[in-house]
Ribonuclease HII (Niabella drilacis), 210 residues
Amino acid sequence: MTKKTRSNPPRLLLACQQDLLEAGCDEAGRGCYAGPVFAAAVILPEGFYHPLLNDSKQISAEIRTELRYYIEANALTYAVAQVSVEEIDATNILKASQRAMHLALDALTPAADFIAVDGNYFVPYRQVPHTCIIKGDGKYAHIAAASILAKTYRDAYMQRIHEEFPHYNWISNKGYGTMKHRMAIEENGICRHHRKSFNILPGSLQPSED
């Protein structure tokens, strides 16, 4: 393993405030062509630390898996939720992402008294105060932990459904609009796992970030 992969990120902050039980929240798969959107909510105990914890996009799949099991074993509480392709198409991806985060928060025991969310937008959850933090998954440990869980759970889901439709290569691209994925859609059309509302029918695809 290279030094770059294993190098320790800066130590992340544990919470935005000190008085309330605080959950970090993040989603994964919002920009994908296929598969559900996932979200996680995590409450960490005082003193929680892992030297490699960081934004899930900044670390390798191997380290994400290592961190997933560490978070599951050491979090005060955590939950992961998903919202289906059908609901994404019936509402929109933004609403589906917010619903996934709310579902994850619903499942926390104990419940959060304060919520820190990655990004710049969040639909208020019940009467719980919240704050949005741009690039929060690289600043706060509980948001980074949520990003790790959402990403690893979603990747595992996409690996499972890859076996049913291997020509889309979801085991590698996880449903994102890579060149090979777009080419496979042009050749084979879309399947029941694709998001029909994303304008990805053959002949209508536009380049996306690989």
About this structure: The CA atoms of residues 118 and 135 lie 6 Å apart. The longest helix spans residues 141-162.
